[in-house]
Amino acid sequence: MESGLSGFADYEVIELLLTLATPRKDCKEAAKTVLEKFENLQGVFEASVVDLCTIPGIGPTNSFGIKLIKAVAERYLEKKVLMKDPLSNSKALFDYLYLSMGSKDRECFKVFFLDAKNRVIAAETLFTGTLTASSVYPREVVRAALDRSAAALIFAHNHPSGDSEPSPADHSITRQLLFACQTVGITVHEHIVIGNNQYFSFADQGHIAQMNREYKKNT
Predict the structure, then answer these.
(1) CA atoms 59, 65, 66, 68: torsion sign
(2) CA distances to 96, 102, 151 from 121, in Å
(3) Residue of 137, 157, 147 lying closest to 202 (CA atoms)
(4) What pLDDT, in 10s, does the model give residues 122-162?
(5) What are the distances in angstroms from CA 54 to CA 120, 130, 136?
(6) Crossing angle for the helix pair 64-81 and 90-101, to the nearest 10 degrees
(7) Which of 20, 118, 147, 152 could form a disulfide with 187 if both were Cys (CB 3.0 to 4.6 A apart)?
(8) pTM of the prediction?
(9) 2-14 as b/e, with b when 16 or more CB fall inside 10 Å?
(10) Contacts of 17 (CB under 8 A, 6+ apart)
């Protein structure tokens, strides 16, 4: 309680979490084994209950602590984003996105819905794809934005490969989404690609501004 986790080895952190539901059980060997199998703390936290239960000494009951800690952290970071202006606090946005999307083995496309003051009023994963791609439909995005009375949007998706560099398809769908949203008076502020502890910002690289110029030119 006084020094936090600074003096704990990673396996001891896992051991502590395992004992939350089984306080009278020695979980040290199970903690060491599960850390070895999933390579690091993040791998352990991302593992499914089914996979965790393949480790001797870990069952549905004492895997509760492991699953709880990630869920609590994700909710905590989400609350730091909701009703805040993510455009002026990109670090909080990335922290939330990296925890919630960074290690998934399928592409997920998340939309942040903003009000007229650029505060996040909702965040939702609208599409989940395969190992390499996600099918994103501009019509569904616009419909979801209108249903929430959103004035602006931020898009984010992950690359399971860990490489945050956007593909040609990423550029194409961003342009389609921006044009579709502009048609109904909804602003697109950003599209973030999440990789392995890194990200690519379409806005920071000037692509959003360029697409807005293209839209105005075409209309």
Answers:
(1) positive
(2) 15, 22, 10
(3) 157
(4) 999 999 987 677 789 999 999 999 999 999 999 999 999 99
(5) 40, 25, 35
(6) 150
(7) 152
(8) 0.78
(9) eeeeeeeeebbbb
(10) 65, 66, 68, 69
